[in-house]
Amino acid sequence: MSDRVLSLENVTMQFGGVVAVNNLSLEVNKGEIVALIGPNGAGKTTAFNVITGVYAPTNGMVYFKEKPIISNFPQGKMKKLYSGENMGKYSEVIRKTPDVITKLGVARTFQNIRLFKNLTVFDNVLIAKHMNIQSNVFSATLRLNRKEEANMRKESMELLEILGLAHLKDEISSSLPYGQQRKLEIARALATKPSLLLLDEPAAGMNPHETHDLTQFIRLLKDDFNLTVLMIEHHMNLVMEISDRIYVLDFGKLIASGTPADIQSNQRVIDAYLGVADDE
């Protein structure tokens, strides 16, 4: 069985005359931490939105654990790309919705924190737990599956304890310091029991001390939760320290990929991005 958890093939996302992502192909293997970097407006978050089913791509395919979850090809192009015995494995349009993709094992955080600001820390995690509920709407409405609800509450509390947030369980999420809100958003993503975690600028707005702590935190999460991580990030110290491999986008196109050492010495990447300040 392949170790490939995520792969994109020739993904293009066009909005009118603007091509936000242009023929992007990449792959992320089990247990890796892979970074997707590039200047603001390079198409990184758009790529995340395609992977998670928010956007239907103009063209291309997304695979999760070797199975297509997103695809869109102009009439006849699929036949040209996948002819013969492989043709029966594909259809020209596949679009799983974000909730289905989450249930398959893909979770994400956002550049702008999206917590339920008026709910407690505990309730934010518990709501995410409901993504994996097994009871149907009828039984849930009649509260017939109280055991499942009790298990979700127990697991939510255990998750907060593991992440060092248990003492804040009754606090309103919007009252937390910024770094703790980031950690809570990651906790909420983990509550869906993902195997692939997408982090969209997790260090945004953090000071150097918080960024250092986050670096260690992501490493621990990967190991403790058996995760594969795809991360968008502008803080190059974090990216270079934690990433196994890096992909670089510029104006929607992939301009380089490789190890941190490869990327640091790539003149095209230096010209397009690494000369830009981290906070830009």
Q: What is the helix/strand order?
A: EEEHEEHEHEHHHHEHEHEEHH
Cα Rg: 20 Å
Taking the alpha carbons of the first and last residues, their distance comes to 41 Å
Q: What is the general shape?
A: globular
Per the CATH scheme, the topology name of the largest domain is Rossmann fold
The overall strand count is 11
CATH class category name of the largest domain:
Alpha Beta
Tally the structural domains.
Answer: 2
CATH level-4 homologous superfamily of the largest domain: P-loop containing nucleotide triphosphate hydrolases
Please count the helical segments: 11
CATH hierarchy: architecture of the largest domain: 3-Layer(aba) Sandwich
Q: Main sheet: which strands, in order across?
A: 7-8-9-3-10-11
Structural classification = alpha/beta
Helix content: 25-40%
Residue-averaged pLDDT: 87
* Spans of at least 5 consecutive residues with low confidence: 76-91
Protein name: Branched-chain amino acid transport system ATP-binding protein
Keywords: ATP-binding, Nucleotide-binding, Transport
Domain ABC transporter: 6-276
GO molecular function: ATP binding; ATP hydrolysis activity; L-isoleucine transmembrane transporter activity; L-phenylalanine transmembrane transporter activity; L-valine transmembrane transporter activity
